[in-house]
Design goal:
The structure is a single chain. With about 575 residues, the protein is an alpha+beta fold. It folds into three domains: about 375 residues, Anthranilate synthase (4-Layer Sandwich); about 70 residues, D-amino Acid Aminotransferase, Chain A, domain 1; about 120 residues, D-amino Acid Aminotransferase, subunit A, domain 2 (D-amino Acid Aminotransferase, Chain A, domain 2), CATH 3.20.10.10. The model has no long low-confidence stretch (mean pLDDT about 95). It is built from 14 helices and 31 strands.
Amino acid sequence: MPHSLIDFADPHGGPRTRVAFDAPHAVRVAHRADEVGPVLAEVDRHATAGGWAVGYLRYEAATAFDAAFATHPPDGPLAWFGLHDAPRAWPDESVPGEATAVWGAGPARADFDHWVARSHAAIARGDVYQVNLTAPWSGRLAGAPEALFHAMRRAQPGGYAAWIAHAHEAVLSVSPELFFDWDGERLLTRPMKGTAPRGHDAEHDRRLAEGLRSAPKERAENVMIVDLLRNDVSRVAVPGGVRVPSLFDLNPLPTVWQMTSDVVARTRPGTRLLDVFQALFPCGSITGAPKVQAMRLLRELEAGPRGVYCGAVGLVRPGGHATFNVAIRTVTARGEQLRCGIGSGITADAQADAEWREWRHKRAFLTRASAPFSVLETLAMDHGRVRHQAAHLARMAQAARHFGHPWRLEQADQTLQALAASHPSGTWRVRLLLDAHGQLQAQAFALAATEVPVGLRLADQAFEMTDSEFTRFKTTRRAHYDAVASPDPAVFDTVLWNERGELTECTRGNIALQLDGRWVTPPLHCGLLPGVGRAQALADGRLEERVVTVDDVPRATGLAFVNSLRGWLPAVWV
């Protein structure tokens, strides 16, 4: 594995910068605030002379640029940069290995509510008008950290990803947020403020995106930080040279929508890299505003240092062209110990429930990257014929696109044809698996007839994963379903419901209820898998979509379990 990897988008729309570096010929490290400036000056000199530099600043390096910035004592070097003569070829990723990360529970909800209340009190007093509250998550790694990095890149593609490893720690950053891009004259910052989850289908996704763009709280949060960045950028800009050419742009990420705006300027002649950091660091999008007062409050509310999280990770090219991310969606690894932070901006109208959900949405990239999984389809095969093959493969293709797994329809067709040819008689349950590298595997298991009616049980509490991509798409990641399975042999499956009290699905199929003389099934926006059997029943007119609540259950005059594998199974409550 190379010492460093940079996979950065071009913020101006050009080709990505994807370069790798072996061990640096020199390293520049700052452990004290008064050492940060000399390190950045040396990085600048090296790049001006034709070299490359890769490195990062911790959030706590802020004290090097303004003594009024309050932080906790750092937990590592304030700045670290490797100096290189030239990059090497990007490594082969065809078999990068595997890694599993197990993450702790994170902060308690009661603590989170207390932090939000403290933030609101500070806003009400006029101390701040926005504060970007964060908390750390700790985890344990099994496997190589570089394998986790590549899994993180697949989970959070398209942004500003960097891998930097040295004796003290490894930094794994897949940040979608640009801190700044500066070519020596033109300076671009792109603060990211405003978050919404992705939808369960195209129409739901569109509504969520437009809701984000029009939400007063999200727009106000974005404008506050744009104003702060305009002020910061003006410190190095030519007079009258700061512009905001773009406001409220929506960026689709796999698990969330994010809203960004652009602040651009021409920098004054003689501006150096140190001057840019002096003006901008830390980025206002991860502090709040005003910056000094917000950072003082954050030191009171947050238990310890943020570390590389909320700092900046980046690349300085020959000639001095510098690109740095805001180090969100960033993990640090020290041996088996992992650390990652999550946060959001608290304004006067922020609601604790909504912010808590936003933290959960932002953690989704960790959930995706933390263990290998395959996209899964379960199909029925009768006497050498696969039932609803086209519909299942279309759904698998959609999931493959979502998760970034390579997909070839011809390969899937051939795999199923070969399996069917080897099982010309009998009824079989087929598992078709597609891994992250595009490898397909098909397995057949004898399928016995199901005795009806089957017994269904209502879950004891709301299912917290209804907004997860691992609910909307079928994969081998099923621990959240297994956790609610009933040990009672009379229970065929468990019926799930969301935090709004709406029924969603069973753990292995969809649910149908007869209400007011009609057979109905929950719509996708309640949080469920779009089952192939469900889709067929809707197309045939046997089912119609309708929101069904837990309170509606006693009124139901009929109950059924529905999936493509077993069909329509009459059911009773257990």
